[in-house]
Amino acid sequence: MPETKTLTAAPRHDVKVTTALRRFAISISILNIAGYTFLGFEQPWLWPFIAVLTAYVVEIALEAISARGEKRAPRYAGGGFKGLVEFLFPAHITGLAVNMLTYVNDRVWVMVFGVIVAVGTKWVLRAPLKGRMRHYMNPSNFGIAVILLLFPWASIAPPYHFTEYLYGPADWVLPAIILTLGTMLNAKLTGRMWLIMAWLVGFVVQAVVRGLVMGTSIPAALGMMTGVAFVLFTNYMVTDPGTSPSKRSSQIAFGAGVAAMYGVLTALGIAYGIFFATALVCLIRGGYLWGLHFLAKQRETAMRQAPPVAASREQEGSPVEQFAPAAGPAPAEAAPRPAMVVLSGDPCEDGTCFHGKCAAERATKKKTAVSV
Questions:
Q1: Following DSSP, what letter does each residue of 204-242 receive, concatenated?
Q2: Dihedral angle computed from the Cα positions of residues 260, 262, 266 and 272, in that order, rounded to the nearest 10 degrees
Q3: How many C-beta atoms lie closer than 10 Å to residue 117's C-beta?
């Protein structure tokens, strides 16, 4: 029986990814503290604590259920308090991001619902990648998209969300800090600079195309790139290392695909297209990974079911493979058993071609065999 490969849950993150998650978790925590202190965040100050606690509970509960079903140790166990903290980095980021980027009036249960969906999708929308089941849907983006889709009265945080109380040079300092820290994070740790460049170039292209084809104001379409929310999305949302590809060409396709999808959705009059575009491209990537998996399985099955061909070539390199009768002297009165000829598929080797050189060689061999 051939060995069967089993897809298992991903192990702990490597050092670079863990470092990136740690710095991202610290950055988004500082941004929330600053937001509720002097930037002008409008959600109640208690909500980020509710969001983070909800994300922790869902993450630990689903990991425990998954580990029990796969008969393995939970990823939060065995590393002490440090291991637990590192395991909860993604949940911490997701909880704060969903609360920070959505505005659901005073209905906290909608925000909690978005956090549950965001964290839970990592155990539902998964695809095989390098022998393991990996989630392919950006958690924070998906939670926000689901809120916007199911609750039409909800919205994303207002444009002035991050700079309501900033004036003068401070309006530029905050985006500059976020841009600098995000670029360093992606250049040194996540390795997603090709994705960022493809996303930015694609965004400019779709803005120009919409302006030329549909009459949209090109400066207004490009003006979105100057907002803090766009800078955050570019450096911290679309570049999620867990749900974006690592290969250079795949990064370019992913970033450009999100920009193109955003252009199409915006041209169709769909609001908040940036979140829906990211979710749709992640969904397409997940389907692509499953397609590759099924094709690989089909090829593996076909190779296992292919009958082996046992043949012995003549010492002189004869193009015809013959299966001789069983060894041992045959009775004198018995008629010789015809040999089974198996063609190789090459006309020159099988002696069925019309090449002059090959015909001359076959004639020479035939005369030599007759003379012997």
A1: HHHHHHHHHHH---HHHHHHGGGSHHHHHIIIIITT-TT
A2: 180
A3: 20
- Look at residues 210, 228, 205, 195 and name the one whose alpha carbon lies nearest to residue 266: 210
Reading phi first (left if > 0) and then psi (alpha if -120 to 50, else beta), residue 272 is in: left
Rg (CA), the chain: 31
Query: Residue 195: pLDDT above 80?
Result: yes
Q: Are 244 and 235 in contact (CB under 8 A)?
A: no
Residue with tokens 């392919």: 136
Query: Is the pLDDT assigned to residue 42 strictly greater than 90?
Result: no
With 70 as the cut, is the pLDDT of residue 336 above it?
no
Question: What is the 8-class DSSP label of residue 41?
Answer: -
Provide the residue type at 103 as one letter.
Y
Q: Provide the H-helix boundaries in the chain.
A: 15-34, 47-70, 80-87, 89-101, 108-120, 139-150, 170-185, 193-214, 218-223, 228-232, 248-267, 273-305, 347-350, 356-371
Least confident of 40-44, 230-234, 335-339, 364-368: 335-339
- pTM score of the predicted model: 0.76
* Residue reference for tokens 């030329």: 212
Closest CA to 32 of 185, 236, 331: 236
| Phi–psi pair at 354, nearest 5 degrees | -115, 20
Alpha-helix residue ranges (DSSP H) falling in 233-313 = 248-267, 273-305
Rounded Cα–Cα distance for residues 21 and 96 (Å): 13
* Torsion on CA atoms 331, 336, 337, 339, rounded to nearest 10: 130
**Is the model's pLDDT at 120 over the cut of 80?**
yes
Compute the distance between CA of residue 75 and CA of residue 84 in angstroms, rounded to an integer.
Answer: 8
| C-alpha torsion sign, points 24, 27, 28, 29 | positive
Does 356 or 115 have the greater pLDDT score?
A: 115
Mean pLDDT of 100-107: 92
Dig out the tokens for 314 from the structure. Answer: 């003549």
